[in-house]
Amino acid sequence: MVALRGKEIDAFLARPDAGRPIILLYGPDAGLVRERADALIASAVDDPNDPFAMVKLDGDELSAEPSRLVDEAMTVPLFGGRRAIRVRAGSRSFASGIDTLAEMGVKDCRIVIEAGELRPESPLRKACERAKTAVAIGCYPDTERDLARLIEDELRIANLRIAQDARAALMSFLGGDRQASRNELRKLTLYAHGKGEITLDDVMAVVADASELKLDPIVDGAFAGRPDIVETEFAKAMIAGTYPGVIISAAQRQAAWLHKSALAIADGTPASAVLDGGFPRLHFSRKPAVETALRNFSVTRLAAIIEQLATAALDTRKQSTLAAAIAQRTLMAIAANAKRRG
């Protein structure tokens, strides 16, 4: 099995193994998937905008003709040099193309596959994990340590420092999506250019909640038992063009956080300590809704909701045309059942 983790990922991304030209990037952090894909493509070819060097393929289209992936990977460049193929995976499998490529051996071509969340039994993930010429890299939301490193990297580039209270506030605003977090940091460093040190006022003035503030009312409304809020805010998100799967992902992360918090409270940790501590830090504006959610749901019911949301996430990928209906129905069901204590 070639599934990289932890420091193995950093080492591979810094110096990709030429013997493993097939790279699957998957996970809930779409921004991190894109960032890593961009870096891998940039290091694979001299010019990512050269159509003779870079080919983009759609995963759902490949599913009808997986051999096309093989043909593209084995094509000899007209003017020599290296090539790269970027595949955006969809809901349909093209794993047989990966199996064939793994047996043939690929030279001077890197295949980078971007995918969303994939279960261990996913054909694409299994194909990449069992192939000796492929790697599978999970892309999950940044941990506290990851965010600290991200902040330091951006501050170092901008030659800026940050006050302790400003850093603490900044950490609470970041983390849902790597690309969104990095964009917010660059906006902040541009705002503070020439000031030497970033203050709390700078953070509050510039940084929007890149971690999902716009989705929080939907998620909090569901767990707090407020179907009216879910309906209203969900409609706003659809008008804004938000993909329903992103909302379900946010709900999954909140369900996992609530489950972990409920376990801690059951073990004797005061609810106030759970709400004020931990990571990611809870925005103060969300505390009333989250307190209500913790009163509404037991550990057992939260475990069931995690399964319910996992099924919804899978269904939104399988039936993209019904994704909005699936997501809204799931969240409304959670909100309706929240009033049933226990």
From TrEMBL:
GO terms for molecular function: DNA binding; DNA-directed DNA polymerase activity. It catalyses: DNA(n) + a 2'-deoxyribonucleoside 5'-triphosphate = DNA(n+1) + diphosphate. It comes from Bradyrhizobium betae. One of its GO terms (biological process) is DNA-templated DNA replication. SUPFAM superfamilies: P-loop containing nucleoside triphosphate hydrolases (SSF52540), post-AAA+ oligomerization domain-like (SSF48019). This is DNA polymerase III subunit delta. It comes from the Bacteria. Keywords: DNA replication, DNA-directed DNA polymerase, Nucleotidyltransferase, Transferase. The lineage of its organism: Bacteria, Pseudomonadati, Pseudomonadota, Alphaproteobacteria, Hyphomicrobiales.
